[in-house]
Amino acid sequence: MKKRLAALTMALVMAGTLTACGGGSESASGGKGETSAADAASSEAAGTDAAGTDAAENDLGYEYGEDVTFHSDEPVQYTMMFSDHENYPMKDDWRIWSAIEEKANVTFKLTSVARTDYNAKVTAAVNSGSAPYIVPKIYDSKPYEDSGQIIAVSDWVQYMPNYQKQVKEWGMEEDLKQMLASDGKYYRLPGMWESVAGGYSLIIRKDVFEAAGVDMSKEAEWTWEDFYDALKKVQEHTGKDNIWSDQFQLGCAMNLAANVYGVKAGNSADGGDWGLQDGMKFDFEKNEFYFADTTEDYKEFLKYFNKLYKEGILDPETFTQDSQQAQAKFFRGDSYVLSSNYQILSDIQSQNKMQVEDADLYFMTTPSGPKGNLKVSSAAGRLENGIVITKNALDDLGEEGFIKMLRFIDWLWYSDEGHELTQWGVEGETYTKDDKGNITLNSDIYFNGFNPGASKQLNVDYGFGGGVFAYGGNVDIQLSKFTDAEKEWNERINANKVNQQLTPPVLADEMQKEDLNLIKVSLMDYVNTAALEFITGKRDIDKDWDSYVSDCESKGSTKYTDQVNEIFNDTKDILGM
Q1: Which distant-in-sequence residues (6+ apart) come within 8 Å of 545 by Cβ?
Q2: Please, how many CA atoms are within 13 Å of residue 53, restricted to the half-sphere of its CB?
Q3: d(CA 167, CA 162)
Q4: 12-48: string of b/e by CB count within 10 Å (b at 16+)?
Q5: Are the C-beta atoms of 504 and 564 separated by less than 8 Å?
Q6: Which of 78, 145, 204, 456 has its CA 20 to 30 A from that of 283?
Q7: Which stretches does UniProt call biased (Gly residues) (predicted)?
Q8: Which residues, including other chains, have CB under 8 Å from residue 184's CB and lie 6 or more apart?
Q9: What are phi and psi of 142, to 5 degrees?
Q10: For 49-63, 437-451, 505-519, which range has the lowest pLDDT when averaged over its residues?
């Protein structure tokens, strides 16, 4: 049977650096293929594969292509890691598994790992060489890039027509540079969004704020200082301290504020590294990196949160409690502010978790700061978590089988059909579409604020809408996931905030990474600890500031910055800067 192919395949070329040798391992025919991404793409557009065979006359045993449903003639199974979320634990009989099998004739052999242990288990499996073929839900491939155990996927994307369509039509080239390694390649297939939506912000009790005399009509224009003024009114109106008892041990909120103060902050045991990272910011005027967390901007940033703490606005237990404890206080009406994303807010409302009658919850836009009214979610660009593919896949499947797997991944994770399937399920079973393509979830199914009180849940009972598969997509699929209230929140953000410039990546090689990491670990642990001490008053920001800066320098902040800038200057040609 002749197989349908994509009519046109685009070579992914970024400043001349993203074309590289593709498929240097033994092919199924016993030869070694070494074809550039550009050459392979040209060959495929002409109807030939990278090995030079005439694909149009060759029975591949599967269908694939741009906007074509992948389907294998013979059943095939791929091994895959699975991040098992505690709120919707994985089930063998989820409809998503049979839906994928019906469409593609593909099943998975899963290595299921609890979400909280996922990163550690992935690291152990990759480093030992025992990881499954497909490892999704990866936010950063850098820890694995020098292991020799994962594939430089940029060598192979010419075989992925839907992926390349997104890159071309959405202009993703600059975003993809964020993932480059020192060899000019990237090792993670990212989820890609056509447009950046909002991310995390703050839920507030609007009824309490308004009763305190706070004018909510200007909320989208608030600075963090304006938010402080509003909090003071709430404190005075209620006569209570600790009106902000935050979840994520303040790590999320610190990251939200850090973006508009021009610094790096946000790290907690409950949530991990929200944005502290290595303290590096990029000066676009000077075209160089600097250590942001010893600057006057950072000092003012700490003074802000210290003011909230000293005046009894911020609950001292914020820094030690887990998210469940923080949420319980909010539900009881003991606090009135909570860091969150919109899905958490939707779950609170749909599941009637508030224990206060007539509580009116409002999702703020993130306040602006000294560096402007910035869209916090734009700092990372339009890339989402993604997939790393292990060397085991290429070794076990051979080149032809490996390319077949890539084309399956291309359909499931990057085609419009794949996005709709993994997000919403099976048309006619879990959702319907009107003539304009608008999606309506079945009324007996709840998801992300849709159909509160429904007897079933899309992710819990069916497996659709989960983070392993359902991320990235075009504007239509993005908007389909938003309730009217969430659309309104995003409209507020887009109307009032501007995107941030993307920071260039630091293309360190293996030895340079080791050198930098030796400094980073102890330095940033000290910075994080000192931040909490300054905020809680254990250290005086004015009296102890100079000694803090000296301590950072003695722990390597200057040396780290110099090394980062040296690497940056040596790799500007790769980045096209």
Answers
A1: 299
A2: 12
A3: 9
A4: bebeebbbbebbeeebeeeeebebbbbbbbebbbeeb
A5: no
A6: 145
A7: 23-33
A8: 17, 18, 20, 507, 574
A9: -55, -40
A10: 49-63
Instruction: Tell me how far apart the alpha carbons of residues 150 and 393 are, in angstroms, rounded to a whole number.
Output: 9
pLDDT at 418: 98
CA 266, CA 252: separation in Å to the nearest integer?
Answer: 6
Average pLDDT of the chain is 90
How many CB atoms within 10 Å of residue 547?
11
Q: Say which CATH class 200-376+502-575 falls into.
A: alpha beta
Quote the CA–CA distance of 504 and 329 in Å, as a whole number: 41
Determine how many CB atoms are found less than 10 A away from the CB of residue 319: 17
pTM of the model: 0.80
Q: Which two tokens stand for residue 37?
A: 């991404």
Closest by Cα among 338, 353, 364 to 226: 364
Smallest CA-to-CA distance from 291 within 300, 282, 299 is with 282
How far out from the chain centre does Cα 321 lie? Answer: 25
For the domain bounded by 25-196+382-415, which CATH number is listed?
3.40.190.10
> Are 444 and 461 in contact, with CB atoms under 8 Å apart?
no
Cβ-based neighbours of 375, under 8 Å, separated by 6 or more:
196, 198, 493, 494, 497, 498, 499, 500
Residue whose structure tokens are 């722990």: 555
DSSP H helices, 205-351, are 206-211, 224-238, 251-261, 296-310, 323-332, 342-350
The alpha carbon of residue 432 and the mean position of all alpha carbons in its chain are separated, in whole angstroms, by 29
User: Token match 């550690």: residue?
Assistant: 120
Question: Is the fold of 25-196+382-415 the same as that of 200-376+502-575?
Answer: yes
- Domain extent listing, the chain: 25-196+382-415, 200-376+502-575, 421-496
Number of Cα atoms under 13 Å in the Cβ half of residue 97: 14
Point out which residues pair with 112 in neighbouring strands: 82
